[in-house]
Task: structure prediction
Amino acid sequence: MVAPSLIPKRAGDRVKTDRRDAASLAKLHRAGELTAVWVPDARHEAMHDLVRAHLQRIERDLTGIVRLYPLTRKRPVLASQLVEEPRIVTIDPQVAFGRPSIRGSRVPTVEIAERFKAGESLHDLSVDFRRPIEEIEEAVRIELDLEAA
Result:
């Protein structure tokens, strides 16, 4: 396969017909002047999609500060499912010394998880931290690597 932008052309050669193009490509191919391009296979495309999905979970503001939204669920099969994962837990260098915390608060996820491990219910933690239960579940999930809190 050859990339169209890599096909050598003479200056001013703008007439385009299939017959002319075929003859030109045949001459260039015989002369070895065409540059082949690599076409990724399905595995490489899947890896590319996975990396792209992870990169979409990184935010940068105008001052250059980066916020990360770590993955809190078991790894899905499709990369498109990574983008849909909730952005409740954030790692922000300006909040909680860069430790994972619930977005929009200064509540470190490790503190919530420790109290959950000590036996407190998700409802009690939700009331104590004044956060919805879904956020408390995500905080516990990221620290304890649970399928569901």
Notes: Residues 59-144 form a domain with the Arc Repressor Mutant, subunit A fold (CATH 1.10.10.10). The beta strands are 58-60, 66-68, 89-90, 101-102.
